[in-house]
Amino acid sequence: MTAAASRKRALQIAPALAIIGFFMLVPLGLMAYVSILEKGLNGGVVWDLHTPAAYVNFIFERDLDDSLLLNTDYLQIFARSFGLSLLTATLALAIGFPTALYMSMQPEGRRNLLIFLVTIPFWTNLLVRNYAWILLLRNGGLVENLLHWLGIAGDQPLGLLYTPYAVSIGLTYTYLPFMVLPIYASLEKLDSRLIEAAFDLGADRRRALTRVILPLAAPGVAAGCVLVFVPALGAYVTPELLGGGKSMMIGNLIQSQFGAARNWPFGAALAFALLAIVLLAMMIYLVRFRRAPSGGH
Fold this sequence. Notes:
The chain has helices at about 5-35, 55, 75-105, 110-120, 125-135, 140-150, 165-190, 190-200, 205-235, 235-240, 250-260, 265-290, 290-295; strands at about 35-40, 45-50, 60, 70. It is mainly alpha-helical and about 300 residues long.
């Protein structure tokens, strides 16, 4: 590429980079600054008083004699968020991989229809979808009646709604397309002759799946897991509606600090802790799969 072509390309993408950079870096810089400010008496912050107290309060709390004591309350919320996000990514992978594999094995015209069907949930507002799950999971709802009819559950109400299970089901449903589409993108490019060669060499279906298909689909699986795990970690609407305030996650904790608690510095510090976790996950993914496009695995 010539120097003139490089300059032309840089000028073409410069406006987009400037807008994205401004609207990403300025809010992040403001949040970073707020996280090191003193909390105001009636909410907000004291703009000329700096302190690391917000980050200290994440792990410690002040005793009556002003000494620091270990406080695991917020760590438990982070651990709960990690557990639910991991469960969500696992359920989405268990459902999404067979779905993507089936889609990739269909004729091209039917593939487009299946991709269209996978994206249909995006057409409906997230709030409406979560209220629909409330109707499905409540006592006497469709899910409970179905389990009773199948004989899986007894005659007593199951109480599925407002539990971590309900939150995980809602998150799995919400982010399932983010798992299916990256895996499908990897499987669609898979050379079917490799699978045929595996069968010709005596491999059964399980060996062909574990030795050929899964390794070649690993970049898509990893991308899907990241795309599901990261937004689930900071989810707010689904834990609030399906958890009923009993399964607080990181997103709910951050919202409460900017809302009822009126502790903006602590909310900003929590947001930056979440951002650090997300960046770490992205770096691990990039380091592990940076050569995937050329090598395939």
